[in-house]
Amino acid sequence: MRSLKTVPEIKLMKLSAISALVCMLVSACGTTDPSPVGIDLVDLAGGDVVELAELRPSEARSRFREIFPSVLGQTEELLIGRMNGVRYVSLFEMAFDPADLPGGNGSGQAVDSLFVELKILGNIKRGNLGRVIVSLPAETCSESRSFVDTTDFAEISFNQVEIADVVPALVDSTVRIPLPVDLLADAIGMNPTNPVVAFSLTGSGLDEDYLIAVSARDTVGSTNAAELVAYLSGPDGQQVSRAKTTMDTYFAERLANPEPGEILLQTGVFSAGVIRFDLPSIPESATVNIVELTMDFDIDRSFLTSLRLRFERLIVVDGDTTFSVASGNPVNEQIINPTSSPFVMTLDQLLFHGWMTGTNENHGLIINPIFDIVLDLRYEWGLFTNPRLRIVYSLPPSIGAS
Question: Alpha-carbon distance 287 to 352, whole Å?
């Protein structure tokens, strides 16, 4: 039995000349380097089938590209928190009607306490609910605003003033967040019969990442949109007043890149994955039979129902990295809906054949989320780590083989 002297964990399977596939496990010796580069093709016979398992990348990272100008005030959910280097800020405007106030007028009422109650939508919560930053908007906003500069697809800074860092309470699917009482007291001073309170909520940087999706006022069939709850004291004692949301929306702010080795695939805040494997050389007449990419899926740091992905090869021209589709093979696009880890994807054999035969220079693979361009695009993402590759290729039969 021949042995491969340079690559461990490679199973060499000898094709029978007649019909049976005879499998031979080839033991490794010498170097422990898992890279398949440098396989000695002289040691392989014509017709051999080679499996390269658990190939590790020389590069694996996320690449933020742009923020799509979604009008998120038209979505049925609001996101609050921080996740994978992105902060999600929800804006609320709530108005009291005269019928909501004691005697139809807030004058003469002391605001003892003020809360906003949010309903978690579909039990969508990631991480442990942490502290919440409460801010006062310093400019007007609306549900039709995208918070993105369409000339460069970067977020537009929204002026707001931080006024509190509070600890929320979670009971079943209801989040209760305390607010400064001055928010309502000042609003009553401006309009005692119809006070309007505006504020924003986001995750504090003092805690671990977390995210909650809560019902928006536009949620179809929902009676659980956010409510402002005020405890007021006046001549007739203490009373509880409630106000409904008149405007809500949210936006995303990039804070930092994901950690090296993390592959963040996201729509809305457009993030792609870049992976490069060092691959062995094979003859042009060889056939790449199977290419499988396996990655660990972090469900606790992901928020998605499905993602549509396009697999493209990186092309570098004069140091400038651009992107182009490697071939028209439909396998270059696929829809994924991971629910467990590890997660396996089958990749295009022609893409890897071009790299391994030297037809195309191997600068790596980019995984781009693709999506329909609609104003109320839902932000979705999946976080993956620990990519590894499995390739099965076959060498052409030896000349004169029967």
Answer: 10
* β-strand pairing of 365-370 with 307-317: antiparallel
DSSP state, 116? E
- Are 286 and 47 in contact, with CB atoms under 8 Å apart? no
Distance CA(222)–CA(125), nearest Å, equals 18
DSSP reduced 3-state for 88? strand
The two tokens of residue 123 are: 């039990």
* Tokens 């890149």, residue located: 257
Structure token digits, residue 311: 């697999």
Does the predicted TM-score (pTM) go above 0.70?
A: yes
Distance from C-alpha of 380 to C-alpha of 13, rounded to nearest angstrom = 42
What element of type H or E holds 203?
Answer: strand 196-203
Judgement on whether residues 44 and 76 belong to the same structural domain of the protein:
no
Give the model confidence (pLDDT) of 162-196 as tens digits: 899 999 998 888 899 999 999 999 988 888 888 98
125 shares its domain with 245: yes
Question: Is 57 found in the same domain as 96?
Answer: no
* Tokens standing for residue 53: 């398992």
Distance between start and end Cα atoms, the chain: 21
For residue 142, give every residue at least 6 positions away whose Cβ sits within 8 Å of its Cβ, in sequence order, or none. Answer: 73, 247, 249
160 lies in which domain range?
Answer: 71-254
